[in-house]
Structure formats: structure tokens, C-alpha cells
């Protein structure tokens, strides 16, 4: 080698530690030493420590034992950590669904004027987000057929909890019972129990048949004490409810609210809640706008006009400004905790507004035709997959004789736990349902793996 | 001084700004050839049908009519509107972060490791024994914490007897609402002349019926509750628990820990203290921490580590669940990234600069600040001017105004929290905005704002005749 730059001694060594290149102090505080000196002089203090009026016995020395890292080191470390999530194809659903999120959703929702803003306490300077939320409310209004939609709850479970307390406020039934179907997910029920705890509501289950409501069983479970009946369409077992009209008729003349749980994609195709007599619609709106991100979502909440002043959460309304132009603003805030305190309709303050933005963009991207077509596909895919699974010896699918949306349960001969575990080892995640059933969810994001799944199930069941 | 002319897109045909999507196009689509029989489907949906380029322009224009932290200072008191580092979005956006909540724990070890590490970080920062990350917002954290307190009293067979929660008058509205949601009666505590908890009033109010005292420290005036040890003794001697509202934790990072002050239960507002974006109103996350002995009441599941395997565990006397899954995962992931970026030194520097900035700003404005010494925020008085009007006039100067008219202990309150992320120069611009308004005449204030996308908005009509959707606009 023709060495024109001879090696010289250097004290550089390769730093492989995660702490490499970490700054002292916070990288997000703009002050240099001179700034601090001038600011302290203006305040009349010698040292920043003087500004802390904290008695000695409760002072802390700041040694949490948390090591600071460079941006790159944090990213590398968390990338490596998350890589420990197994690389499996998910056929999972049960209230949390994966649909393809188009790139415009990230691109637009990450615009910093949106994501770095907060609740629109100053509407004049927040018209953009207010219009987004107004359009979101309009979308939910259209798809639920309800008169009023708020601009988000945390998730489907907390939205159901809020519906129960709404029923308690607006209904004068003799008792305080919330009637839920036996198929209600344990997690949703557990959240509902906590919302019911304060007002002293009692949760009672009614039996269902073939994965859907048995109107006779519902009617006999009803009493004068029931504030609200909750029904899902589709259920988290994937069953499309076939008795909504009858349920509506049963509840029509009672002091009992009819609360329907659904999601925005299913609502694009399935029966309009308003047409079957629903009073409140809750559910997960995040099926549009978010992939499966460990259950983070956005709660849907819509209801009939007569409950408007008892609605929980934020509402955006149209108004006029001083020029007479149409504008948008948070409205009916006297329902809310920052005004009404302990008499507020809910304690919710921060909500899921940014997810509402994403949901609105995704829905607008699909449009009415795209939404309906995708929803229709969500009825065909599970039917097809169930039929193919049913052809495998030892598998009976779907377990319920019904139409399905995205997912279905399948009965299997043998130990479901072992089958699910074996499938996971071979790269597929499905739900175990008890000792002898599994649940499989199929959408446009995993259908290309359906053939492999079928082949693998065939091998595992053999 | 700086000026700010906000973008405003309008079309004369739409009697306002950027038309609604529904005003650009509204298409009715009726499904045909569906797999489902007609009696299980709806007649159709009527929604906007627009192309991707139009969609992008629509939302881009709306974003231009919105003010965020990246636009300028946003000193909303008790909201901690600090800079949101961008790298956390890249981490949250990676495909490995997108996993289903019902995965067997074995298949979600990466996600569970992040949960476990963040539980640990927050335990250290709060001086708490254990942390749950499940509550999806600060208010949800409050409800969770109060349900833990309730479970504790029920465990001690004092559930029926302890039916009151004490809340200082100056507390956040959510404290009252959360305690009421959990079924408690609220006892409001007056402040003393210094703006802190009145110890005599507290001693008078506590007793056998006290379940807990909810306290923010520093309080909403930015004042540290110096008597915190005595407060803790009074509440504990009466058999009650002490609850810490973490909204103002940014002031104390590394300087004092709620656990060391005697708090039994606390919540963190990670979107405030740990810089996850506020997203136009959320999502945030409101993890709670508890002292030793209360872990068994925490929501289910908790993430534990067993050897090198992360598992999900139901605490022995768990209150159950407060979110359908494990809370706002992406927000928690960004929180983890922020904390591990800063480390001890960065966290301590954060509170130092937050408190320095608030003090410097207060020094530079020509308004009375009646209470002190304050920390990360202060409450100035707009004096003879209505604080809400004062705020509108500030908008024309390229800043977001403070929280207004609250806490009520200060007349025409301007509750101001600049955060550590504003530079000296930016604080001076912000002070100039305050001072310009304090010198403006009444007519100028009444005419403001003039430079924003919307002029002063009529709130009364909006509430009297609510129009909450495009469908109702045409009613």
C-alpha cells in the first residue's frame, strides 16, 4: 500500500457504550451559561437552586440511576428491545383490528401544528383542529345515525363505562342494573365494573344463543330495574347480530337505554343503529387510523339528541366570529370537569383527539364506496377462511351458525392451548377460546398469509 | 415584539373558512351485491368522496390554521406545553411497535420489556414502590388512584365509613370529578392567606370519614406546600391516604419525590412532564404509582420480570381494569424514549430550567403576581382587564396565551407555565406580548384578535343553539 498518510498515535477509542455522545443536562433546554447568569441577575438570585422552596427533609438529590443517552443510542436500544416481539403473523382480533393505514394518515397527522397543539381553549387560533374534530363528529353522526357524537373517549371499554353512567343520569328506572351479554369480553366488563362502582350500578349478564341475542332470554332478563342493555354488532366473537330490530322493539317503551357497541368500519355496512332504535352507540373508532398498537384506540360515543346535555367529553360546535364567518369552538363546556367539577358528566379531560384526526383522514381516504367495499370484504374473508378451516379434519368452523365480520370461532378436536402454542411456534398467532376452540381474525392485512395458515393448521391437527 | 398573521383559507361560497369535506363533495353510496342479506345491511352512507390530492390539501390547510408548540410559546398553566422531541415519533412508528394486545406474553417480550422498564423509571422518579401504566390520561389516573384508595379502605373494613375526599379549592377540576366518579363526597379545603393548604382547616376537616386528600405540589399557584410533612401526618393519623396529582411534577424532577413527601398514591401526566405530544387534546397517559403495601390493589395486569422473561400478573386484590387493554401504548413508548434520552442529568436540568424560566418571565412582565415563591408556573393578575379578553389580545403577538380565570384565588388569573424549552429570547418576546396587552386600551383589547384565522368567536350562540355536525348545519 502506498501510504501517504502515516498512522499517528491517537487517544481515540471506539465508544460502544449506550451513553456515547449523551449531553450533560437536557438537550431540550436552550440556555447557555451566559443566559442563565443574566436571567438569575434579573431575578435577583445567585443560583437556580435558590429558586426551589423545598424544605430540606423532603429534598432529593436527583440520582435516579437512569443513564442519559444520545438520540441515536436511544433509538438503537429501543429498536433492539422491540425486535424481541416475535415475528409472527397475527390472526388476532376480538375488538382490536388491523386494517391497512394509508401513508397520508401519518403524513398529515404528524404535521406539527396538529400534533403539538392541545385542547382548543383558544378557538380563534385553533380553527384547524376544531374543524377536524367537527368533521370527525359528523362522520360518527352519519355512520351511527345518532344526533350527537362527541370528539372521543379513551377506548371502547371506557366508552361503555361512560354509557352506563349516562344511563344512570338520564333514566329513572327503579333500580340500577346494567344488562350485558354473556359474550362481553372480560376486559370490557372489568372496566365497566369500575365505572359502575361509584354510582353503585349493578352489572348483570343475560344469556345469548348461537353467539347472538336470544330475544326471549333478553326479555325475561329485563326488569323494571334495568337502566341499560348493551349489545354488540359485530360481537367480539365476530358474529353479526340478527335480532337488532326485535331488541329495539323490546326496549322501545321502557325506561331502558339500548346501547349498541360497534366500530366505524362495521357501521359502514351493517344495520344503522338509529334504524333499530339504539339510544347510544359506543365502540372502537380506531379500527380506522391506527394499526394494532397494543390496544391503544379511540372510544366512539354517540347518542340521541335528548341526552345532549349529559354527554361526557368534549363537543365541538359551529358558531360565528366577529366578522360573521362560520367558525368552530368547543361548546357546552358547562358539562365538563373544569367548569362543573364534581357535578361534571365525566372526569375526562385529555382524550384521544389525535387519533380522531387519524380516523377522520382514513375514513375520508376510503370515502363512502371504499368504506363499504372494505366492510363487505370483512364479511367475505371470514366466511371463506372458515369454510376452508372446516374442511380440515378435527376443525369445525365457524362455531356459530351466523354471518361474521372479520373473525369467527372454530371448534377443534384436541387441546386448544397446545394447538395455539404450536401455531405460535410456527409463526401464527390466533386466539385460544377455552379448552376446545380458537378464534381467527382475517382482514386485508393478513389475508395473503391465509393459505399458509391453513396449511399449518392442517399439519398441526394431523 | 413580534407579530403573527395566521394563515386563513376561505372560500366565499362556504360562508367561512376552508370548506368542510362535505361541502366539497357529499356522495351517497348504497351497497349492492353485498355478501350479507339486505336485512342485515344499511341502506347506504352519505359521506365525502374526494381524491387523495384534495384530501392532502384539505388537511394541510387546516394544519396551517392551527397553533402548536412548534409554532411558538404555549404557556398554558398546568398543561406543561414543552417541546416534543421528534425522534420519539420515529420510534413509535416502527413496525415492531405495532403488535396486537392479545398476543401471548411470550410473543410480545419487547413491548413488555418497555413496559417493565418504564414502570421502573417512574417508580424511581416518583419515589414509589410500584407503578401501573394502564390509565390512558391524567384524569383516568386520578380515578384509578382513588379506586386504589377505596380498595385499601375496604380491605381494612373501613370502606363504608370513609366516604369523603378532601380537595383544596385551587385543585384541578378533574380532582373533584374523579373523586365523585368513584362515589365519594367532596370536601373542599380553603387556602390560607399564603395560597397554601390551611392546616387548621385541614385538621378540622379530616376524621374517620376521610378516605384521602388529593394534593398538587407545587400547587396551581406554583407554590410548594412547605408543610407537606405535617399535612401527611395529619391525614395519615386520621387514617386517610395522601394522593399526589402529578400535573405539576415538571417543577420537581429530581428535586423532591412524592414518595419521600409522604404521598401514598400518585399519578404522572406523561404528556406534560415527559414531553409526549398533546395531539390537539390527547392521547396522553396517566400512570399511577403507589407506596409499599398498596401494590396488591393495582389494576390488572402488572408487568413483572421472572429471570429474563416478562410476564403479566394480576395483583392479589386488584381493582380490575381502567382501560380495555394496557393503556396508550404509543404514548408510553415515547415516554420511555424521552426519559432514557435525558437520564438523571437531563431530568434535573429540566426542573432547573423550568423554574428559572417561570421566574424570569414573571420578572419581565408588568403585571402583579400576588403569590410566591413560585416554581414552574405563576399566576399573574390581569387587573382591571377581563383575563379572557387579555388572552385574546395576546394571540396577535404570535404567542398562545396562558390559562385564564383560574385558579380563582387570583383575580382575573393568568396562569402561566413557560416550560424549560423556551429560550431567554423567546421568554422576552412572550413578556413583550404580556406587556403590550397590559398597556393596550379597552377598545383595542375588545377588537382582538385580528391576526388569527378566526376573529372573536361567539360562544353563547354556539351553546344556545348547538350545531355539532355538518348534518346539523343544514337543519
TrEMBL record, chain A:
Source taxon at top rank: Archaea
UniProt key word Protease: no
E.C. numbers: 1.4.4.2
MF (Gene Ontology): glycine dehydrogenase (decarboxylating) activity
InterPro entries registered for this protein in UniProt: GcvPA, GDC-P_N, GDC_P, PyrdxlP-dep_Trfase, PyrdxlP-dep_Trfase_major, PyrdxlP-dep_Trfase_small
Domain Glycine cleavage system P-protein N-terminal: 29-453
Region (Disordered): 1-32
Alphabetical UniProt keywords: Oxidoreductase
Biological-process GO terms, alphabetical: glycine catabolic process; nucleoside metabolic process
Catalytic activity, as annotated: N(6)-[(R)-lipoyl]-L-lysyl-[glycine-cleavage complex H protein] + glycine + H(+) = N(6)-[(R)-S(8)-aminomethyldihydrolipoyl]-L-lysyl-[glycine-cleavage complex H protein] + CO2
One Pfam family per UniProt: GDC-P
Presence of keyword ATP-binding: no
Compositionally biased region (Basic and acidic residues): 1-11
Protein name per its UniProtKB record: glycine dehydrogenase (aminomethyl-transferring)
Lineage, top ranks: Archaea, Methanobacteriati, Methanobacteriota, Stenosarchaea group, Halobacteria
TrEMBL record, chain B:
Domain Aminotransferase class V: 147-279
Record's catalysed reaction(s): N(6)-[(R)-lipoyl]-L-lysyl-[glycine-cleavage complex H protein] + glycine + H(+) = N(6)-[(R)-S(8)-aminomethyldihydrolipoyl]-L-lysyl-[glycine-cleavage complex H protein] + CO2
Transmembrane feature ranges: none
Keywords in alphabetical order: Oxidoreductase, Pyridoxal phosphate
GO MF annotation: an example: glycine binding
Pfam families per UniProt: Aminotran_5, GcvP2_C
Listed EC numbers: 1.4.4.2
Biased composition (Basic and acidic residues): 7-32
Domain Glycine dehydrogenase C-terminal, chain residue ranges per copy: 351-439
One Gene Ontology term, aspect cellular component: cytosol
GO biological process, one term: glycine decarboxylation via glycine cleavage system
Source organism, top-level taxon: Archaea
Stretches for region Disordered: 1-48
Xref: InterPro entries: Aminotrans_V_dom, GDC-P_C, GDC_P, PyrdxlP-dep_Trfase, PyrdxlP-dep_Trfase_major, PyrdxlP-dep_Trfase_small
PANTHER family: GLYCINE DEHYDROGENASE (DECARBOXYLATING), MITOCHONDRIAL, GLYCINE DEHYDROGENASE, DECARBOXYLATING
Protein name as catalogued: glycine dehydrogenase (aminomethyl-transferring)
Organism: Halopenitus persicus
